[in-house]
């Protein structure tokens, strides 16, 4: 129904406007008595064999929603009905910011991809916390970043503010230094600044009543040498793991007219490189830390490929937009069929 009826209609309109419309639609319809139960009965796969324990957390299934869709923690409770095992909100910054000028979100229909240059548009940490207080039992990841106006030499302060504010309301943290849409942000992936940032957050973490998992989200555009540095940094700082990968700045092999747009590319064109990064990190680290695999998952086969490459969990975003919520069920059923 989604791909044959709803998607053709949605794809006739501006992607960002459709995003806000579908959020309102999901939130409004689930207020109607019985609708949420119907959605759950259609899409959820509840089976003990899907459960995973990763970095000390128990996931009801290994299929999550990647950061970027529910940036401001607006509808995570409603999205949970579609069968996700966990939902990652953000990227959140200390202060509200509008992000980059519109138009900043582009479909690449011929390539089943999306280019975005949103620029961490969000309502700020205080607003996100207020919404997360309404959590009805969803396992939440908090993806944190720095404000655009904050210089890199002060970036640690922004991440620390977000960490402290979100600590009581998320189950794990994701340090985002890999978005291509905030000027100079990716420079924080270099070994020295990254060691300082992760070391500071881990020190704060260990002073809390109970330390929470901290993960690092990395770009797919890193070289093998940089990926080896990432392994060293994780082993030295003892953070919980990695999310591989964020969007790419590569435009190799694209057919769509919108390929000329500046920003991060997600979707099918990212699948192969994301899997390569997962496999490299898993093999070179001797599986010494968990990896969440994300990038180009548009089918159950794509998700199984990530898991086989070494991912403990997977996340979808662009695949959710192109394939619809049935993708979550398809992946979970494929995992069960392997048992």
- The CATH class name reads Alpha Beta
Average pLDDT over all residues: 97
Biggest sheet, open or closed, and with what strands and sense? 8 strands, parallel, barrel
Helix content class: 25-40%
Q: Tell me, what's the shape?
A: globular
Radius of gyration: 19 Å
SS field, number of helical segments: 12
User: The CATH topology, please?
Assistant: TIM Barrel
User: Can you name the CATH architecture?
Assistant: Alpha-Beta Barrel
Question: What is the CATH superfamily label?
Answer: Aldolase class I
Strand order of the largest sheet: 3-4-7-8-9-10-12-13
Q: What is the total number of structural domains?
A: 1
* Low-pLDDT windows of residues: none
Order of helices and strands: HHHEEEHEEEHEHEHEHEEHEHEHH
Beta-strand content estimate: 15-25%
Instruction: Report how far the terminal alpha carbons are from each other.
Output: 29 Å
Structural class: alpha/beta
Give the number of DSSP strands: 13
Domain Dihydroorotate dehydrogenase catalytic: 50-336
Catalytic activity: (S)-dihydroorotate + a quinone = orotate + a quinol
Membrane topology: Peripheral membrane protein
Pathway: Pyrimidine metabolism; UMP biosynthesis via de novo pathway; orotate from (S)-dihydroorotate (quinone route): step 1/1
């Amino acid at each position: 129904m989604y791909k044959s009826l709803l998607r053709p209609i949605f794809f006739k309109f501006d992607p960002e406007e459709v995003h806000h419309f579908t959020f309102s639609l999901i939130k409004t319809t689930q207020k109607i008595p019985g609708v949420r139960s119907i959605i759950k009965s259609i899409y959820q796969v509840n089976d003990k064999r899907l459960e995973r324990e990763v970095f000390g957390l128990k996931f009801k299934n290994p299929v999550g929603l990647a950061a970027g869709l529910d940036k401001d923690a607006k509808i995570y409770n409603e999205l949970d009905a579609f069968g996700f095992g966990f939902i990652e909100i953000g990227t959140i910054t200390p202060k509200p910011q509008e992000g980059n000028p519109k138009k900043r979100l582009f479909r690449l229909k011929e390539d089943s991809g999306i280019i975005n240059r949103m620029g961490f548009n969000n309502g700020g940490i205080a607003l996100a916390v207020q919404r997360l207080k309404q959590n009805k039992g969803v396992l939440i990841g908090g993806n944190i970043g720095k404000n655009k106006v904050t210089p890199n030499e002060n970036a640690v302060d922004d991440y620390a503010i977000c960490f402290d504010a979100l600590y009581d309301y998320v189950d794990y943290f994701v340090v985002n230094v890999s978005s291509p849409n905030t000027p100079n942000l990716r420079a924080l992936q270099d070994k020295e600044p990254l060691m300082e940032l992760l070391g500071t957050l881990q020190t704060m973490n260990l002073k809390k009543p109970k330390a929470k998992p901290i993960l690092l989200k990395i770009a797919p555009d890193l070289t093998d040498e940089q990926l080896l540095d990432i392994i060293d940094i994780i082993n030295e700082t003892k953070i919980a793991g990695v999310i591989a990968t964020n969007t790419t700045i590569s435009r190799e092999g694209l057919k769509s007219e919108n390929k000329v747009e500046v920003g991060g590319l997600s979707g099918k064109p990212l699948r192969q490189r994301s899997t390569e990064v997962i496999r490299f990190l898993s093999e070179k680290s001797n599986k010494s830390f968990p990896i969440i695999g994300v990038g180009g998952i548009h089918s159950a086969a794509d998700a199984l490929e990530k898991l086989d490459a070494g991912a403990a969990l997977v996340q979808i975003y662009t695949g959710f937009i192109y394939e619809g919520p049935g993708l979550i069920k398809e992946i979970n059923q494929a995992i069960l069929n392997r048992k």
